[in-house]
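Model it.
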Amino acid sequence: MTAVAYTSAWTATRLAVLGDSTTFGVGDPLARGGWRGVGPLLANALDAEIDNFSFTGARIGCVRERQLAPALLARPDAVILIAGMNDTLRSDFDPDQIQADLMHIVTTLNAQGAVVLLARYHDHARVFRIPGPLRRALQARITRLNQVIDDVVAATGAPCLDLDRLPGAYETSSWAVDRLHPSELGHRMLATGFADLLAGTGCAVPNPVSMVCEGGRPANKAEHIAWLIIKGIPWLWRRGRDLVPYAIGIIIRSMFDGDRQAPAAVPAPVPAEAVVHP
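Modeled.
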């Protein structure tokens, strides 16, 4: 498959936003209620009209089945798509199907003339602390998801924002109180990253994304603890029920691998300072 060839200069007059709660804007609340997020911030930078077809809880299959058709009708010049994390948290995680769906979405939009911007994921465990086995299970799936995204990028030439390398990605201020969604600052960082990607294709970006936050007061420690008790732990329980069987499989495999690879001699004790606690 031939990668997209970009012209030397072009203008994005209409932006479409696809994906899950991140592209829906969760984490960047408006004073009058609702969410803003990366989409409107990027649209302002482009002086573009915006259509946001994303919704919370969306998976890659949802984007193909429910968001792609209306996006095509809107005939966007540029599209941002962030999705896949909800797939990693489900027992029916299927990288091959995710890749087929993502490839279809990107190539269909490309065929209509839209530039599709993708994102590959960071290490969520560095932001949201979860038990060790679940952390390893989730990271294994994120790694596999990133491989899928990399393959689609290699096949289509879609510009891709690497969240793991985004400056400030692991700073607390970049995240909302739930540690799962970007804060206002985090959404501004995403918008800046996508604007830079578009500029790299020759797209005009007349207005730089401001990094000055103008939203509400950041959540304090008590509010974070309250969120963890009321919403965070129930969320972890719901998602854990899908991930736990996979995590158990990882533990069992690692035990057998360890037995096969164990040296005959008794290993030296590990220095205390080298121990990493989950």
